[in-house]
Sequence to fold (212 residues):
Amino acid sequence: MILAEDATLLREGLVRLLAEEGHDVVAAVGDGEKLLEATAEHQPDVVVTDVRMPPTHTDEGLRAALEIRERWPDTGVLVLSQYVEKRYAAKLIGGDGGRVGYLLKDRVAQVGDFLDALDRVGAGGAAFDPEVVRRLVARTSHEDALARLTPRERDVLEKMAQGHTNASIATLLFVSQSAVEKHANAIFDKLDLPQEKGYSRRVLAVLRYLGS
Fold:
């Protein structure tokens, strides 16, 4: 694993936490350029990166994350941010929608949630902060296609957008996995998503939900 965070105290604290939890941190860097160099050298299973890093403290970490997604698709990327960067979130879940996560930094203080998200991304899944999803979907609440969904279908789609599997959604919503699968198929049909080979209807549904 590689950690990219320019705040020294937070970076060192995360390195210690991850080591205590059994994760092997092969590099800990403080800017986007060094993150790319370290990723090229080590090609880790997962990269954890802040969004805003030197020199401009705008989006260096996020741009590095997107480049890593493109150049090393087998490397999972977990982005940490103080704010919701709407214009990039949809790009992060492009492709097959796996091995990616986006958490607000406040979530890191909730160690269990942070480690759970890290494990999900490392295992090939996705993990999106509920608050990130809530803010992103606010602009799409009046879309005609989404308006066709029942409240339960919207619940299922929201959990999909957070990166949960059908089994996880069933547990969270206290329903059977077969019920979740039926809701998911209804969502895909109501959103008029294609069934052609090469398209993931699940990812397309999430992208529609995020307003991209």
Observations:
- The longest strand covers residues 76-81.
